[in-house]
Amino acid sequence: MQDVLRRLQRLWLLVHWRTWQGRAVIWGGATLASLLIVAFAMLVEHAIALFEAARQARPWLPLLLTPAGGMLIVWLTRRYVAGAEGSGIPQVMAALHQHQDAGHTGRLVSLRIAIGKVLLGVLGLGAGFSSGREGPSIQVGASVMHAMRAWLPARFPVRPYDLILAGGAAGIAAAFNTPLAGIVFAIEELGRKFEARTNGVLLAAIILAGVIAVALQGNYTYFGRISIPLADSRLAVPILMSGVIGGLAGGLFSRAMLAGMRPWPGWPGWLRSRHPVWFAGACGLLVAVLGYVSDGAAHGSGYQATRLALEGTQPLAPFYALQKMLATLLSYFSGIPGGIFAPSLAVGAGLGQDLANLGLGQVSSSTWIALSMAAFLAAVTQAPMTAFVIVMEMIDGHALVVSLIASAFLASLVSRSLSPPLYHTLAQRYLPPRDSARRPPA
Known about the structure:
Layout: H1 2-15, H2 17-57, H3 62-80, H4 89-97, H5 102-106, H6 111-126, H7 134-147, H8 160-176, H9 179-190, H10 199-217, H11 236-258, H12 266-274, H13 276-293, H14 303-311, H15 320-334, H16 341-357, H17 365-381, H18 384-395, H19 401-416, H20 422-427
Helix pairs in contact: 2-6, 2-7, 2-8, 2-10, 3-6, 3-13, 4-8, 6-7, 7-8, 8-9, 8-10, 9-10, 9-18, 11-16, 11-17, 11-19, 12-13, 13-15, 14-16, 15-16, 16-17, 17-18, 17-19, 18-19
């Protein structure tokens, strides 16, 4: 009898109007987040195109525009949207760790931060910095979903933690047009698990965000569809080399980014701590110099150059990977809002192009680039599952799935010997003092 009553109670909860009200709020939040992220993507494309047109017309212009833009962006960030700096993923992780502290969480994920992240992220890429929109989209999605808690009905079984987690995953699903990558990222990097009682509703929200992005932007793959041969023994050398080289480069890159958390010695440290706006201008000037030397390759997200290299239309220049790494580090150190996902993929593409030019392994340049993209991204994030799924979905590279997995896991293993986990370590700076010594949930 009691068993029957429990089943009737579960059935009543399933059809109760409050249950559907809660689901509608969550799905509405996912829709709003996806719309904002798609708008973010479109604005970024226009901003990069305007910057490139201006640079082509006047190659000296970035020497003025990038430093001035960096100074303006950092001043606006510190004055109006503190917490929006950087990629946004460490802030989301810290918010997950402190989800029960509404005051602290509101300083890391909020609608104000979401709007500021979009506008200032567009301005940063329009000024010529080397950054991406994908990481910031995670903070945008988490911010929008967290704001939805005010409209949830009483006793609806979804916590702020669940909303932040689903919003972050929806952000990456919409940003890359890869719903599966959003789910994997949520499990592997943000929260490592979903609660059984809410996973259906939240997974539906993530998938909905990806579907809306596809509906608005078309059913495209992020880097197009490339021709990949079936895996065979010829891939052994490319897997090994891309995994080891990508792991070493990604580990060193991650370690360099973590150096940004610590006080710097000498006058750079003085300028950075005492005059952060002027420091951002100095970083912007160095990015502009790199852009001038590389004929614009150091600017922007690296998306277009990577796409052309994968298609075999236009190979990347020698030393592209090094130039992109330096420009991305300087952009991160400046304190502007901007992510490292797209630049990391571009760096990986540059490494793959260099390895392909060595003539080792009888495989195409596109295969080398795809493997190295997965390897470098896995090494930087130390999230190999997410890295290989992102690359697989972005290039429609299902024929390479096993090779991508092997390259990503090998690179992540190598990276761990050089650097602690990047995002989890960066998240510590956003935790209250009493929790700063503890690592966010892994």
